[in-house]
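Researcher: Next entry in the queue.
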Amino acid sequence: MQEHAICVESVDKHFGRNHVLRDLSFKVATGTTFAFLGRNGTGKTTTIRMLLGMLKPDNGVVRVLGLDPQHDPIKLRASIGYLAEDQAMYGWMRAEEIVSFVAPFYPTWDHELAQRYARQFDVPLKTQIKHLS
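Model: Structure for this entry, 133 residues:
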């Protein structure tokens, strides 16, 4: 088992002249809860996107579950979950359509498991998601 679930060492990230992250370093021990807190524009979303392999740091090292998100994104994403605060969902789509829509993004997607969870949590798959709470 990994001692640290997340390890970030001396990470820098620029967007043009805007230096968003400067020498960011932190570790999150396996099995612990961790949160990013801060004002708008302080690099929280940028850091999360680097942890997911969606952005590459300009300098430094990022490891999640012992993997480099830039080199092992598929293996990493098979082991983690992420839901953005402002997740774009198409309200006109039925729940079953959303399931079909996102499945191709996950190489290890298990359709049977998704159906089982929908039943377990009483998700009406034929209902438009704008009508779900």
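Model: The chain has four helices and three strands.
Researcher: Noted, moving on.
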